[in-house]
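Dear support,

I submitted the protein below through the web form. The confirmation email said the job was done, but the results page showed an empty box. After a refresh the structure appeared. I'm attaching both so you can tell me whether what I see now is the final result or a partial one.
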Amino acid sequence: MFHNRLTHTLEVAQIARRIAERLCVEDEQATVAVGGVDPDVVEAAALVHDLGHPPFGHAVEKELDRLVRAAKVMDGFEGNAQSFRIATKLATRNANFPGLNLTRATLNATLKYPWRRATSGYGQRKWGAYGTERYEFAFARGLHDAGDTGRSVEAELMDWADDIAYAVHDVEDFYRVGLVPLDRLRSDPQEVQRFVQKAIQHLREEVPRYQALTPSDLVDTMVEAFKEAVWSGPTLEPYRGTRRQRAGLRTYTSGRINNYVNAIEIVSDREPGQQVQKTAEAEDQVNILKQLTRIYVIENPALETQQHGQRRIVEVLFGIYLKAVRDGDDTSVIPPSYRDEVEDAKGDEDRVRIVTDMISSRTEEQLQKTHRRLTGLTPGSVMDIVQ
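What the results page shows now:
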């Protein structure tokens, strides 16, 4: 079985709780000194963290951001901010209040990027809340000083759990389907050189402390990250699904996860927002594993045509829905579950945001079906109710 968005979320929640429980037992004094760490809060934040991830992944996330800004709503679209919007406003649990009615601590723990969108720098690329949720954001950050952009300890733990699950399980999946060539990275110097050149470029751009990273540093980190990855005899081989490979791969991934779960501690005498510390070795290895997915999968030229089609579906649906909510003359295209929200919208920002809700909340199959119906490619049946 390959991992999907649901299994990823469940794994992040499991890892996050495991980290929190370990710290509460093994480092009780430090956790008490920073105000306590609640495993329930960390686990709940992990379950929420990816709710706003749109269909088709990051390519569509960027496309939605472009479309929202083109519609004059300048805080755009971001998956983490969408998760916060779902948790505080869109999810339906009780008719008497919006969202999931989560505690302040849990909402704060969901904020990997506890700031609104900036006009430049990293804060322009990643942020945690839209203007439509400014009051909910202020509530979640109520125990922090004004202007404080540091994450809570529980948010840090959730984020590290997310990195672990993403890095380890994506490499596992994409090695199995032949996209990540772990075997060649263990035996082919030319393949290592190609990967290292691209990975260094990305890491230097994204992580300040990697500015002085050298190719030999990266190779050393790779050797450490892959040293347990030998389960086909004396060297790694392309994945064929043998019993030895399946067992060895599971042993390797569980070992990596265990190492990274134990590579984190709380340093209570630091400033708030800087009290969670990971070992440099573990952080470097996780970053290398994440680069494998980025370089061999996300940047794979074979995906460009597919992603072009996915962006086109979103662009067309966004235009149809935006015209409907702004003009109000063809509301039949709006799914019934969103018509109350459109009627209650207080301004154009709300209307644009509802359009992104309608698109980002669908599955990939639902988006494709809706696109075919609204463009006349496949009219469908009256029995096919679009929610």
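Response: this is the final, complete result; the empty box was a page-load delay. Residues 304-374 form one domain.
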